[in-house]
Each structure stands twice: as structure tokens, then as C-alpha cells.
């Protein structure tokens, strides 16, 4: 059984892609690194996927889906961060009402950093195939007020990234992915 965390490598032709979507890649990598460094071993596999070709129609995600869809019942949740890594506000979620209730309970663990909201509908080109077929999906939600200042521009460089805000995003990704991976049962479909 798999909990998939992801971001995509798609620097745009005029920028470095540090925010879109290097930030999503970083927090996904960091989540798994933190879990490993803490010596935690969840019941399910945590799988990091760094998608390619998202801007070219999601061809990397489609290929991955085609290669793994026969095991779709083993995918517990698919998570993608692709809206920057500014100060997080919560999690977008697509799934059953019972699964949403569980995710809301998990998000209460993030009260100390004031990131507890669960929004309707996860977003993510790279996880849409899975969600369409009934796998629960999650996407990081953050304060997007500056996102389109840098999106697909020459300004999308490392200077846009705030290490403190990225750490908060990584904390959300770490807690959610680990708790779901370590639950007794998979999220209800």
C-alpha cells in the first residue's frame, strides 16, 4: 500500500522554476527525509514522485498512471504540491465524506502552526488520473497573493522562496503523509 507525495520539475522557459514547482519538489523530498531522520517507519510505503512534463500536458503523470493503475487499490492517497510554497493555510482534499472526516482530524495536529483548514477539492495535474478513479487526493493550499507575480516568469528564482514558510509547508506534508501511512486502515473510498 502506498501514500504518494509529489511535486513536479518543470522550470518554465523564462525562469528557473524555483517556486513552480521546485518548492513542491522540495517539501515532498523534505517530508520523507524528516520521517526517515526521525526513525519513523509507517505501516505503508511513502513514495516520492518528482513528476516531469506537467507543462507539456502531464505526460509524465500519464505514463506513471498507465504503469501503475493495475495496482490502484493499493494507493491510499495521492498528494501534490503545485501552488507555491508560501505560508500554508491548509489542505485541498478530494475523497469520500468519511475520508474527509479523517483528514480533518489529522489536520487538528497542525493547530500549533495554525494550519488546520480542509478545503473542497484537491488540485494537481499530476494526480488527477488517480482522483478521477476514486483514489483520495490532497493538495497543499497556501497564501497565493504573490504566486502569480512569479509564475512562469524570469522572477521565479530561489530568492522568491522563504525558508520559514517552506518549513511550514514541509511540516504539513510530513504530518499528513506520515499519519495516513501509519493508520490501521486505508482511507475509505
Question: How would you describe the overall organization of this protein?
Answer:
By secondary structure, this protein is an alpha/beta fold. The protein has a single domain, classed as Aminopeptidase. It is 37% helix and 21% strand. The protein has 6 helices and 6 strands, in the order E-H-E-H-E-E-H-E-H-E-H-H. Strands 2-1-3-6-4-5 form a 6-stranded mixed β-sheet, with helices on both faces. Helix 1 links the parallel strand 1 and strand 2. Helix 1 crosses helix 6. The longest helix is centred in the N-terminal third of the chain and has 20 residues. It is globular and about 45 Å long. The model has no long low-confidence stretch (mean pLDDT 95). InterPro entries: CPQ, Peptidase_M28.
In CATH, what is the class? Alpha Beta
Domain module tally? 1
Q: β content, as a range?
A: 15-25%
Unreliable residue runs? none
Kindly name the structural category: alpha/beta
- The topology string of helices and strands comes to EHEHEEHEHEHH
Instruction: Tell me the Rg in angstroms.
Output: 15 Å
First and last CA, distance: 14 Å
